[in-house]
Amino acid sequence: MTKLIGCVAAAVTVLAVGLVAWADDEKVPLDKVPAKVKEAVKAKYPKAEILSAELGDQDGMKVYEFEIKEGEKKWEVSFTPEGKFVSAEEPVAAEADLPAKVKEAFRKKYPEAKVVSIEKETSGDGAAAKVVYEIVIEKGKDKVEVQFDPEGKFLGEEKVK
Questions:
Q1: Which of 29, 38, 100, 124 could pair with 128 in a Cys bridge, judged by C-beta atoms 3.0 to 4.6 Å apart?
Q2: Partners of 136 in the β-ladder
Q3: What's residue 126's pLDDT?
Q4: pLDDT tens by residue, 82-118
């Protein structure tokens, strides 16, 4: 009987951990976001309006993720609870808007690919900033995200859900 209880407890623990990992980011009302984090967003994007906030996890680190808007342009940015910039994800409207080297390398590697969406992800600040172009394509029945740096170097691909 003790063995059975131990097995059930282990199964419940595994299930609970799996559900926590699967759960979406937690919506946070803007008035509940720490002032220093909102100030950091406004300092980096002074003309942007903060539309929404979520508390999430990015590569094992807690971050506040914001949807912001400036004019007609909307994008997502993330900051640590201490107010340090982590990353920005900006949609790229069309393949034609990619840098020439990225577009050329992408079409050379995936000549027949149907593009679903494109994002420019920037992580880090200043000289340490890193830019990656993420292009989601249809590959057979799957959707795959392919990644290139600004010079057109292929960085990898992974299936997306």
A1: 124
A2: 117, 145
A3: 84
A4: 999 999 999 999 999 999 999 999 999 999 999 999 9
- How would you write the chain as a 3-class SS string? CHHHHHHHHHHHHHHHHHHHHHCCCEECCHHHCCHHHHHHHHHHCCCCEEEEEEEEEECCEEEEEEEEEECCEEEEEEECCCCCEEEEEEECCCHHHCCHHHHHHHHHHCCCCEEEEEEEEEECCHHHCEEEEEEEEEECCEEEEEEECCCCCEEEEEEEC
Which range of 7-16, 22-31, 143-152 scores highest in mean pLDDT? It is 143-152
Predicted pLDDT of residue 139: 86
Neighbours of 110 (CB within 10 A): 17
Alpha-carbon distances, residue 147 vs 17, 57, 135, 141, 155 (angstroms) = 30, 21, 6, 19, 5
CATH architecture, domain 25-87: Roll (3.10)
Cα distance between the two ends of the chain: 40
For the chain, give every domain's residue range. 25-87, 92-161
The separation between CA 122 and the C-alpha centre of its own chain, rounded to angstroms, equals 10
CA dihedral of residues 31, 33, 36, 38 (deg, nearest 10): -70
Length of the chain as a residue count:
161
